[in-house]
Amino acid sequence: MLRPGLTPDQVLGMVLLDITIILIVARLMGKLANKVGQPAVVGEILAGIILGPSVLGATIFTWTNSWSFLHCEAALSAQIPGTPIPPEGTPPALESISSCFFPPQSQGVLGNLGQIALVFFMFLVGLELDFDLLKGKAKSIVMVSIGAIVVPIALAFVVGPILFNADYFAAGGASKSSFTLFVAAMLAVTAFPVMARILQEKKLTSSLMGATGVAAAAIVTVLMFLTVAVASGVATDQGASSLAVKFLEAGLFIAVLFFVVRPALVPLGRKYEEAGNLTAGLFAMVVVLLFASAYVAHQIGINVIVGGFLAGAILPARASLFRDIAARLSDITAIVLLPIFLAFSGLKTDFTKLSVDHIPAIALFLAAGIIGKWGGSAVFAKLGGLSWAEGNVLGVLMNCRGLLVLVVGLIALNQGVITPPMQVAGVLMALVTTMMTGPLVDRFLPTVAADTPKLEPAEASTTG
């Protein structure tokens, strides 16, 4: 007989303790990553892996005498809503440091906090995008977008069938098509926020290469999540008509935001500029818009991340508004909320599930991701009018997966389409491609920095 599990008061206590642990370990690992020349996000991903079953799980050692205040036995024997009831006689989950400190009930809360983190993070990225930099760049943007998403997806239909076996596909969970589409989405991911930040740090956001890359990454992100939506629909046996409706809903949602909501927000922008500061009322309106957009995107099935990004992209008075809103949201998002999401992903990642036999397939998956993304972006950037040197740097930036591939992997794992080893492959993709981005950009950027065409000052004005 299953026990009722933790009481609400106990869940609250565990969540507070978990956040404390996550922030301490994430800060330490982030600083360590910086010391070896890597972005803090690499250390924060590793922090989640350390706290999860890969290092502190029962496969390494069991914890037979857990501390009483953790209520470990009750937490692990409870039936979690939304999970299948285990057959009678199923042995209870083994206690470990990871499972006792991060019980399933608190992990559910941490997962929701992580999604809110992504909404805020992508909202700030969307708000920072300057549309004036994109004028006259349609050909380059479209070509880079094609190379960055079509080539990886095409490779997925070569790699997917090879990986379609019991080691990587959750047998009985979904079809071969849904598995291949989720692999396609994982290969097609671009870490849009990381790319935008690197270009900003290198002072290239006002260059043809930089503006093209940012716009293409935004398009790729939307299309990638549409691929995830299709994969999810196939996994849940939705018909072609349902999937077509989803695409129409996504198109209508984007059109309404840009052609109805955006013009309606112009008076808000004027009011903000007249006041000279972001009042509590205006800030509340912005936050309401943000969460409403994320909710609609979630209901459509294109992910809350897209909703957050689009909410930022349609706001007026962009440069000054970004400065004021970023001052309020950046630290709480980057220092508190994002590490929670990365830790949650690590808690769902178990490297002990891997064996030597998995290495060839995972190596194939990584190679397909890197070659398809880097090579496809570089070649199509050249076809779009950029130089080979510029296309190569854009390819390196597009190849960075960051945290978004973790999102796709968790969606596929939770829907029962992929196995834990395949989800681990996604985490490895995030780590490898993110770690290689900075050094490769520094290596190749000098070849284009001197002759990268800059936009004229009039073209780089702030969007109103």
Supply database-style keywords:
Na+/H+ antiporter like fold; single chain; 2 domains; mainly alpha; globular
Describe this protein's structure:
The protein has 464 residues and is mainly α. The chain has two domains: 8-107, no CATH class; 116-449, Na+/H+ antiporter like fold (Up-down Bundle), CATH 1.20.1530.20. It has helices at 8-35, 40-51, 53-56, 72-77, 97-101, 104-128, 138-163, 176-188, 192-201, 208-235, 240-264, 266-275, 280-300, 304-313, 318-347, 359-383, 388-399, 404-414, 420-444, 446-449. The chain is globular, with a radius of gyration of 22 Å.
The CATH topology of the largest domain corresponds to Na+/H+ antiporter like fold
- Which whole number gives the mean pLDDT? 83
Give the radius of gyration: 22 Å
What is the C-level CATH assignment of the largest domain?
Mainly Alpha
Counted up, domains total 2
CATH architecture of the largest domain: Up-down Bundle
Question: What is the number of helices?
Answer: 20
The helix content, as a percent range, equals over 70%
Main sheet, how many strands, which sense, barrel?
none
The helix/strand class is mainly alpha
Record field, number of beta strands = 0
Q: What amount of the residues lies in strands?
A: under 5%
